Amino acid sequence: MDGHVVDNPAMSRYELALGDEVAAAYYRIEDNRIVLVHTEVPQAFAGQGIGSRLAKGVFEAIKSSGRRAIARCPFMATYASRHPEYLALLDG
């Protein structure tokens, strides 16, 4: 597994490579904020902490970019609420 979350702006998603598969966090840009709208982890990787690894990488990327985020995705909102260091990045 690659282990690094990368931004794929052409597909409006952050990606975590998992061999031949990809876990993804989809977003859109509104008022220079990243709106996280949906997270997907391949079924074969369910229950292995992949979603949390993806979320951590997404929030680290947002933090590094200096942008703010809105978590419309329930998974991302819950992850941020459990990690105060990322909760501070959220608007709304």
From TrEMBL:
Residues 6-91 form the N-acetyltransferase domain. InterPro entries: Acyl_CoA_acyltransferase, Gcn5-rel_NAT, GNAT_YJDJ. PANTHER family: BSR4717 PROTEIN (PTHR31435:SF10), PROTEIN NATD1 (PTHR31435). This is N-acetyltransferase domain-containing protein.
